[in-house]
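[INFO] parsing input record for Protein broad-minded
[DEBUG] input buffer:
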Amino acid sequence: MAHFSCEDEAMLQAMLRQLFQSVKEKITGGGPPWECAEEILLRLEETDEISTSKIHICNTLGSMIEEEMEKCTSEQNQSEESGYDTVVQHVTKRTQESKEYEEMMHSLKNVMMVVVESMINKFEEDEIRSQERQKKILKEKSNSYCTDNCSDSDSSFNQSYKFCQGKLQLILDQLDPGQPKEVRYDALQTLCSAPPSDVLNCENWTTLCEKLTLCLSDPDPVFSDRILKFYAQTFTLSPLHMTKEIYISLAKYLELYFLSRENHIPTLSTGIDITNHNMISLLKKIRLLNEYQKEAPSFWIRHPEKYMEEIVESTLSLLSVKHDQSHLVSQKILDPVYFFALVDTKAVWFKKWMHAYYSRSAVLRLLEKKYKSLITTAVQQCVQYLELCETMRADEISEHSKPCGNKQKIVYYSGQELQYIYFIHSLCLLGRLLIYTQGRKLFPIKLKNKKDSVSLTDLLVLFTQLIYYSPSCPKMTSSAHSENYSPASMVTEVLRILCDQKECAVECLYNNTVVETLLQPVHNLMKGSEVAPNCSETALIHIADILARIASVEEGLILLLYGENVNSSEEESPTGAHIIAQFSKKLLDEDISIFSGSEMLPVVKGAFISVCRQIYGTCEGLQVLLPYSLHESIAKAWKRTSLLSERVPTPVEGSDSVSSVSQESQSTMAWEENLLDDLLNFACHSQRIATSSKKQVAINECVTFMFNRYAKKLQISRQKKFGYGVLVTQVASTAAGAVALQNSGFISALITELWSNLECGRDDVRVTHPRSTPVDPIDRSCQKSFLALVNLLSSPAVCELVGNQELPNKVEYSLREDIIDRLIILNSEAKICSLFNYEQSHIFGLRLLSVVCCDLDTLLLLEAQYQVSRMLLHAQEENTLETSESHRDFIIDGLSVERNHILVRINLIGGPSERILPPRMLEKGDDPYPWPMFSSYPLPLCYLPEVIKNTDIKQGKIFTIKCYIIFNSVILEMHYHVSFLTFNILIILLFITALVELLEKFVLHLTENPSECYFPSVEHTATDANVKNESLSSVQQLGIKLTVRYGKFLNLLKDGAENDLALVLKHCERFLKQQKVPVNYAGHDWFVSSLFLIMLGDKEKTLQFLQHFSRLLTSAFLWLPRLHISRYLPIDTIESGIHPIYFCSAHYIEMLLKAEVPLVCSAFHMSGFAPSQICLQWISQCFWNYLDWIEICHYIATCVFLGPDYQVYICIAIFKHLQQDILQHTQTQDLQVFLKEEALHGFRVSDYFEYMEILEQNYRPVLQRDMRNIRVQST
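[DEBUG] output buffer:
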């Protein structure tokens, strides 16, 4: 079958159609194309087409192949080579070389060409018929089809397979301006209906693009609009490389349009009438371009960089177009940038282009190399507007801002309004440019008619001056309008963004020139004159906003506090912080009469108080602002406002004054709350809460305000990131604060919340399912309440809240009562039966008792009033099981294990290596709790370390001579200035015997020098007989027993020491009564007890040392009863009852902690705990239970020999030592419990001498200055 008949050709054509259809279905049916192609090839032989081809090949070449096979087989039998593959290769080669094969391939090729040509012709016929049908359908539709729907997703659904070249050429001819209108409309409609990708991929696209560009100038607005809709359709549906061509063509058209002299572009004097057809058409083109500018950054990163660069360059080229300027500004022809500012006033397109580095780098590179004039004109526009503001009246300038702030529809923009809109556009563009480093490198800018270039600082000064020179809105409402285009608001928005970028703010804003410009109106107002005729309350509010943002960053705060030159004299040039404080004080005291009676005055006051809050929110800022007594001015302003709110008349129904009275009342109440909020914020540091308490500055009202916000579930303050923990801790650390918390209802609310979580749930919540059984000793639902109580129950708070109160011991109990009587001391059946979850609730109470009793003064108070240890022992005795007649075993459960831990903790005094506390957790194995329990004293010996039990602390006299040599050669000659190397050797060599004599001689030597004596000498002539009959409080008596027990444990005291210590304490009370108000110290005197142990129980040496030591400044900070309500303190301090250790030492601990160990400082804030509280606990009990005895001696000796400021340095060293543990327990949310319960493992004073020497060099002048200012100076 060498030739094909007509029937064969028809059959072959049908089979090819079938083959193409099957392949199309498989490829378009889903799945990766390469997998579909592979499957088609593998299954190709199964098709009918291949089967027919096999039959044709067999009929043509079959006989020849069989002959060749026989020949090859016979030849292989005679030769040694054999194999099927060899035969196949040989036969295939012979067949391909044969004449029959050549004829068959020639015939097959000819018939395939005929078949394919026939199929193509049939395809073109089908295509023409399909186009005719589509054209008929389109004609039947409305002429507005293209206008209403320009998406090619609808039109391409019925489009032909290919947009042919001939048809595109036809459209080009029909778009010619010489054609009739209907023909051109039809051509454009057909173009809009075609798929954009087909149009842009045609060979005639360049010609079409030129034709479309010409059509954009068509005077027919309908036709021009349809061209723009085609552009919009292309922007929406085409890929970037296609839309790029359209964008560039449109940008090029606009550039040529503005450069052409034939087009009537308006001038500044004529303005823009947006009802004019030409202006409407031009603005539509520019808006279309602008819309694409704002959308392009979202997808151009997925394409080659050259596409993006071409778009950027075409845009910058268009915006840089400049006309030949006339000498008269009014005759200036409007440049393209004016129209862009009109459609995108805030330069949103530039903001989006500068957002990502991908496009930002290209924009900045082109601006620097080719289009820097765009930045120059923007700066020039801002300079011109400022000059205009300086020379024109306020009412004239305000006309400029009308189009931007007016909600009414505007149809005409005057030249002045266009200048203002261009100014806003330039301002936003420059503000965005300054954010980035490469943008700032474009400065300085050289301007025309200006001798000096405009630097970054000059530009920021210009921006700042615009705030108070330019007009502002007449009144600032609480919710500013989202489209406020006033110059002051726009400049403030730009400066806010710059403040939020730290690197940018440091380079641009944080310098004296900018800050002085910001404060210039403030400075002038304090002198009684305005800096400019337009300086308003709104401008001051904007200035305060920027100042607050500057003060919120450390670099900005330092600039405000000290200026660029830290060593400059305050008298010569007061820094920003001083000016702000003085102005705020004058505002609060109403010493500035310019704004008197203004409705905006409270807002101005609040804005500048917010700046002060940012400044005194740090310890450094507080030191600078404290002399201005802002809290007193705030308190006075609050009192005046409170009286005004009481005098607001009651509105009468039907009166016209009802609304005005109501509005006035609301504003007064809001201002009153703001002032209370400011006072409350003032109390977030130890020195500030002490100052507030000393001055009796509305502490009760502030705490009540805080409780009201807490009850409403509001954040503690507008500017506080964390909760109420830190503030409650600070307030509760003073007696006055604890009373205020109780009176406000805050403590009752905490207890109510605790009972809700622990026992009964809230009354307003319906119980739908039983609560899950807690697994942890303190359930997660109660953890927050537990930590809140730990923060609250400091030693002063416990003394105020619990002191002299007996247990009710009722027969029946209701819900939500006292936690001590209900959860801790469960000494009756009625208390136990009143609890729903007895074990869980009692464990909560015992855990709280364990933490609270870590404060030894609190422990002694609870033991004196409630006999806590006796109650615990009795409970342990009842929790036993009789195993025989003479033996009883303790029942091991959660309560007995917790009680055993507390009993050991409260009865055994010692540092980390001086006592062993039993764990609270059971162990795995046969003996889950190997620690012996007990129900009577003494404690089992297993809780006493072997090293301590067998060690005599008192050493021989071998090292005493060396210590004397050091003392005589160094200490007496250097007068308080001991070198650290020498002192380190001294501490290592010191033992108790040597330490006693060294302390005595050192203190005696200092008291002989009048300059070293801080307090006057007071004679004490009382004898033992005089004081023997005086009584000691129950707390002091228990403290004596505890001290003697610890001294005997350390082998420092002998029998009879208890009476000697009692006499020492009685002598001290008699001695101190001569110097203070007759109010006894609530706690035990731990310093005297420590000194008694150091003196090895020698009563006479102890008293003699204390009499000399009381004259030194160090005694005020080591010996707490020394200055308790002492007459050497100011009267307000005496009235508040706050010790200098709180507002001086604790304050500087917080200050140094933020500077030296910032991570620990942040951890305290996140945990809602104040470092001052734990430091007060450490210092007040001389680190008993936290350090070993030798380290306690080192602590006392260090402070005596080196100065009282070392008390602060030691606490900072401890926090540095505990940093990793503090960070870990911050994550586990038990930092308070860890710091109070855990001893200071591994801390040695001598290990941190070098570090403390660095602290001394940096902070001693400031610390000693304030420490010496704690008492009333003699005149």
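[INFO] The first strand starts at residue 272 and ends at 273.
[INFO] shutting down worker
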